[in-house]
Amino acid sequence: MGQGYDAGLAGLATDFGVDIDDDPAAEEAPVEASGDDRADTTAPAAAEPGLSSAPAVPSPRRAGDEARPDKAAPGRPRTAKKKVTLPKAAGKTLAENESWRDARLFPASALKSDRERETRATSVLLSVMAQVPEFGRRLTAAFGAPAGRMETFTEVTLPHGDTPRRPDGVIRVERAGKLWTALVETKTNGAALRAEQVQAYMDIAARRGYEAVITLSNDVALEGSPLVEVKIDRRRKHKVALWHLSWAEVAHQAQLLIRHEGVGNAAHAWLLQELLHYLRHENSGCHGFQNMGPAWVPVRNGIDHETLCQGDPRALEVVESWERLIRQVCLRLGGELGQKVLPVQRTRRGADPKALRDRLADQFCLDGRLQSELRIEGTPGVLAISADLRTGKLRTSIEIPAPERGYPLPSAKRLIRRLAEAPADLHVETLVEGGAAGPRGTLERLRPEPADMLPKAPGAQITGFRLSLLKGMGSTRGNAESGFIRSVDDAVHRFYTGVVVHLDATAPRRTPARESLTTS
C-alpha cells in the first residue's frame, strides 16, 4: 500500500483480475440547489466505447432522506467491467465470393526466408503483449515477472566482448520503480535453438543484471530434458533464469482469452484474433511441434523388421518426441474447449523424469506401442491414446464407470441412447468385476440389441464400459496430411467430438496420489 496506487495497488489489482473503475467523470456528484427546492440528482455514468453498458439504476430512497436535504446522494456501487470474448460463429461476410481475402493487420503471405519469419513473428508477438495487458501478463507471469507496465523492444544491440549481440527481443516490466528484464531468442519453422547463442545471452543478462532469458520456438520443453545446454557460473551473485515457450502455448493462451475468458475491450480481442490468425498461417512458421525427429523412420523400420533392441538411444528420442506431441495435443484441445487438459503420468510424485522415459523406451522396443493418457476437466474418465507401430493403428479410448444403482439392462440402454450420434464403428466393451473378459461389439451391432452388452456368466458384476475408436496411423515424421502428427491430432479430435461430448459430465475431482498431472 505504501507504494501508492499507480505503482503498487493498481498492479496488484490487475494481477488478481480485479478491474477498478477510477474514472472521476463516472462519480456521482450532487447538484447544487437553494432552499427547500434542493434535490438529490446524479450525473449518468459515461459508457465505455466498444462495450455494451446497462442503464444506471438509482439507489432506492430511504425513509428520512427528504427530511435531510443537506445529505449527498450515495455513490453508485463500483462493479467489475464485463469481459469481451469473440463469437464462436463468424458473422456474415460482405465479400462477393470466397476468393476475396480479408485485410489482415499482420500479413504473412509475403514471408519467404527464415530470417523474415523470425523477425516478424517476434515483433508481432511482443507488440501484442505490450498492448493487451491480460495477454502479456499471462505469458510472463510463469517466468517470475511482476504485474506492471510492460514495454517490448526488438533488435536491441548489446555489448558482448568484441562482437556485440542482438537478441531478437527484450521485455521490460516496471513495478514500484523497479525493472524486470528478459532477453528473447526466437526460432520459427522448426529451426533448432543454438546453445552458443543462448549461452551468450545468459552471460549478457548476468552482467547487466537482467532477470531472465526466454527462448521461443516450435519445440515443446520437457521436464528434465532441456532443449539447450548452458553453463551457469555459480560464483555470480546475480542469477539468471532460462525459460522456454512454445508457439503452441502462445496460440493456446490467445485462444483461451478471446474465446473463453475474455479481455478488457473489443479492440484487444480483435488484436489477439489477428495474432492467432498470423500464428496459424502456413507461412508464419509458428505452428508448434511439427516433426517427430530423424530417429522416427529408423525406429519405425526397426519395429517392422523386429531389429530394434532395448537401450537404443533412437527409441528414447521417439519417446521424447511422443511426449512433446501429447503435450501439444493437450494445449490445442484445451484452447478449443476452454478447459484444463493435462497429460497423466502414472508414477510417484518426484520420480526422475529421465528414468521414467528410459523405462518407457525399453517397453516401446518390446511391444512397439506409444501410449499416453489425457485428463479432460468435466469428463467421466481418462482419454487414452495408443499408437501401435506394428499394426499402423491409432486407438483412442475412454473407460466410464457403471452406475452405482440400477439394473444392468437399463444402464446399457441408456448408454446406447447417449451414443446415438457417435460413429457406428465405435467399439463398446463391457468391463466385468475381477478383470474377466466381458462382451464387446461395435455400436452399429449393439444399437438394436443392447442386451448383448450384458455378461453371460451368472452373478457377474458390471464395473464399467470401455469405448474405443481405431484409425489408420500416418507414416511420415512431419506435419503433412499423411504425417503421424496430423493423424494423432485428428484421432483425438474425432474421438472427443464424436464420443466424449455425448457422455455424462462429472464434477471436478481431486487427483489421486498415484497420478501426477503435468503440462508444458
List the topology elements.
Blueprint: H1 5-15, H2 114-131, H3 133-140, E1 149-154, E2 169-175, E3 178-186, H4 195-208, E4 212-217, E5 241-246, H5 247-261, H6 266-280, H7 296-304, H8 313-337, E6 341-346, H9 353-367, E7 369-376, E8 383-388, E9 393-401, H10 408-418, E10 427-432, E11 440-442, H11 443-446, E12 462-472, H12 484-498, E13 515-517
Parallel strand pairs: 3-4, 4-5
Antiparallel strand pairs: 1-2, 2-3, 6-7, 6-13, 7-8, 8-9, 9-12, 10-11, 10-12
Helix pairs in contact: 2-3, 2-6, 3-5, 5-6, 5-8, 8-9
Describe what you observe in this structure.
By secondary structure, the chain is α+β, with helices and mostly antiparallel strands. Helices cover 31% and strands 17% of the residues. It is built from 12 helices and 13 strands. Strand 7 (369-376) and strand 8 form a beta hairpin. Helix 2 packs antiparallel against helix 6, helix 3 (133-140) packs across helix 5 and helix 5 runs parallel beside helix 8. The chain is globular and about 80 Å long.
List keywords for this structure.
520 residues, alpha+beta, eight-stranded antiparallel sheet, 12 helices, 13 strands, disordered C terminus
